[in-house]
TrEMBL record:
Keyword field: DNA integration, DNA recombination, DNA-binding
Database matches in InterPro entries: DNA_brk_join_enz, Integrase-like_cat_sf, Integrase_catalytic, Integrase_DNA-bd_sf, Integrase_DNA_bind_dom, Integrase_recombinase_N, Tyrosine_recombinase_XerCD
Domain Tyr recombinase, chain residue ranges per copy: 213-417
GO terms of biological process kind: DNA integration; DNA recombination
MF (Gene Ontology): DNA binding
Family according to the record: Belongs to the 'phage' integrase family.
Gene giving rise to this polypeptide: xerC_4
Annotated coiled-coil segments of the chain: none
One Pfam family hit: Phage_integrase
Stored SUPFAM superfamilies: DNA breaking-rejoining enzymes
Protein name listed in UniProt: Tyrosine recombinase XerC
Amino acid sequence: MPRPRSRVEINRDFMRALAPSGTFQEYADSALTGFTVRVTPAGAIQYNLRYRKPDGSFGRKRIGRWPEMSAAQARDAVRLELEQTPQKQDTPAVVEEKKRRRVESVRRAHGCPSLRTFLDADYVGYLEANDISTANANVIRSSFEDLLDRPLNELTPWVLESWKARTAKTGVKPKTIANKLHALQGLLRVAVKAGHLTDNPAKEVPRNGRADVVVRYLSADERERLYAAMTVREEANRDARHRTIAHRRMRKLPAPPSLRHVRYTDHLQPLVVTALHTGMRKGELLALEWADVDLEVRTIHVRRGTTKDDERRDIPITDELFECFTTWKPLAHRVYVFGNRETDARLTDFSNAWEALLEAAQIPNFRFHDCRHDYASKLVAAGVDLNRVRALLGHADLKTVLRYAHLAPDHLHEAIDRTFNAPRRESKRKRAPTAVALLDTPKKARVRAVRAS
């Protein structure tokens, strides 16, 4: 963030004299540190608080606009914000005190909303404004029914612990409970931003739902059977269309177009090929638009808001996937890569077609999500380092991809060999006398040398 150009006394006369110059202007008050005025090229004038956050980065808060707010009112508002805004020079005790003041100020002005009120209004609005899926809002609404009418400040760690214990007694698995608490933690994090809470109580609740993840991927034989089943399915669809055309023509009715010269008769094969060659999650695939697919640079741009961690990532397009997209695009929905042309919307479900395909290919216990595991497993087995695999999969933490580490070629034997065996062999090589040297030594010395080696 650039520093303000000059220090001035921000008062009524100064504000009246400001005029647009065609570029951004920023001025800092000479008396109150952090109090600034910013003028846009179009002439809009805004009061700001400029400060350094506890982590050392710069922050800026909008205070108000001129002339709706006078310079004196803005100065008072900046002083109040400084009393409630943690800064780099503050001690931990001061930071906690400022958080408490901010919460008290918000509660005096608006009161503390219930979980239901904050969920339905502020939180859903926040998700939509930031183009984030509202799925977590639905999870909270259905999972925390007995807490919805309690004020946010009553959702203490012990209240959440009690909810966890009650839910566990109903037979809900620990992993599911952990997922529900994770969804609530996201809402409470926004509540902290809004000033209703000083800290996120869900962070204090332990999660014991770390279930072991079975890494299921396709064997070479299963992959071959899957592709063969998709080819047979395409031909069956063509035959079915041909019979439909013949039947409708016999009844002198309009007939649909033939599929005889079309490589893909519907979305399923392109969808499966994309999943196997990108490792994208089901939700990411169904939200994928052609605008996100850059065939020129062979890259898929996975938009934030469609990803699980709300972070954009780029995935290179393989040769096979490039051929698939090139062929599929003229046949597909005009907006969505996997859209429903009848409803003019994106595809929402394909479970029946997927299950039928697996049955035809005789592949047991393979979920659609396992295509993601298959993608990661092939990368690791080819020697790609885990951090690159993490980036391609869109995981925030390297620990998540450690489940694939055992697939790296000879990763354990190589580590042991390099750490223990290689130094020992090198040491023995240096100690062992050469054959010529042994011949030149007396008999007893040769015996001792051989025994030592």
